[in-house]
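Troubleshooting: if your tokenizer reports a length mismatch, compare your output against this known-good record of 184 residues.
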Amino acid sequence: MRTARLVVAHTWEGAPVAEDEWAVLDLALGAGDLRVDVDAPWHGDPPPPGAPGPTPGLWEFEVVELFLLGDRERYLELELGPHGHHLALQLRGRRNVEAQGAQLAYTAERRGARWRGRARVPRAWLPPGLRAANAYALHGAGRERRHLAAQPVPGPAPDFHRLDCFRPLGWGPDRPKSVPRRNT
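Known-good structure output:
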């Protein structure tokens, strides 16, 4: 099993955020699927309308997003919310959605000031040559909206589709030393 950890510990432009605002994503790639475990602060934002499940527009609510990049700019965008809503987008080329809205094996649980989610993504959904990733956490509304990133995406506005800002996954049993760890 190959593992990786992404820690959302910066604003989208690269300024560090307090440790209690970090979101941690642990990835485990097995023979049949990719398990994604999320541990994130819960900010109490209202849930999207509708029942938990595939939810278009989820990025407008409290959400943790994972982008997985493969060969030829093929990538998977996963959006996971604290209320059980999710969205999976398969893209080829920057922002060019090829498929979306598939039902994902996903559960979320809010407890105190944090929430945890677990998704299982079939290997067939992953982009060929999976090699790099970035992760983001969004919460709040209006001027209070926060856009946080594991790897900063500098520029005039947050752009999570900046594939050049993704970091290599460094698949292996040891997590990269350069990734901050959150005390749990």
